[in-house]
Amino acid sequence: MRTPLVAGNWKMNGSRESVKELINGVVEGAKSLNGVEVAVCPSTIHIADVVAVTAGSNVAVGSQDACTELKGAFTGETSIDMIKDMGCQYAIIGHSERRTLYGESDEIVAEKFSVVKKSGVTPIFCIGETLEERESGITEEVCARQIDAVFTAEGDNAFEGSVIAYEPVWAIGTGKTASPEQAQSVHAFIRQHIAKRNADVAEKVQILYGGSMNPANAKELIGQTDIDGGLIGGASLKADDFMAVCQAGQ
Ligand code: PGA
Fold first, then answer.
1. What angle, rounded to 10 degrees, do the helices at 239-248 and 16-30 form?
2. Domains assigned to the chain
3. Residues of the chain with pLDDT under 70
C-alpha cells in the first residue's frame, strides 16, 4: 500500500509573520494525523524560518524549484545542494507555472529532475495538460511526453523514490477541479505508462493530484485507486483548510 502524501505549494505568498503563523498551525494540526505524509513548500526565502518550526515534527519541507546547476555564476538561482542543506526533503520540479511563465521545456525539467534525484532530495515532478490539449483529446499524449523526457534522462527506474503530481493546467487556481473519474483515469494511465518500464516502481510511486483540491473535494479524489494524495495551492495557505485536506488523506 502506498501512503498518501499531501503537500502544500505556497507559491509566492506570505510574510515572515504570516508564514510563522501558518506553519505553527500546520505542525500543531499534523500531530494528530495518522497514515498520511505531510509536506509544505514555502518560497525559498522562507524555507529557513519554516524548517526552524518543523524540526522534530512530522511535517516535511520542500522547495518549489531547483536550479539545473549545483554552484557558480547563476545569479538569482538556488541549487539543490543549498536546498538540501537548509533541511528540505522535497523539491517541486516542472510546475506548470515554471513551464509556462518561465519557459521550462520538458528537457530542462528533466535536467532538474536528475539533479534533484542525484542529491537525495525527493522530486515532486509535475505534469499535466492545458485546456486546449484536453479538448483536443491529447491529455495522455502530453503526460506521456513529459514523463518520457525524464525516462530519456534517467532510464527505466527514473521514478524510483520520487513523487509525481498530475496537475491539469486548467484546474490550477481556477476552482475547476477535475472530476474524480477524470483524475483517476489519467492517474491510471500514468501508472501504466511507468509500468511499461518498471512495474515495481509504478506500483510504489506516489501520484498526487493537484488543481483546486480543497476540503470539500479532497476525500473523493484521494479515495480513487491511483490517487495517492494531493499537491495543494490555494487551500494550503490556511492551516485549517490544509489540515482538512490532510485528514481526508488518512
Ligand atoms: P491550486 O494549485 O490548488 O491553487 O489549484 C495547485 C498547484 O498549483 O500546485
1. 30
2. 5-248 (3.20.20.70)
3. none
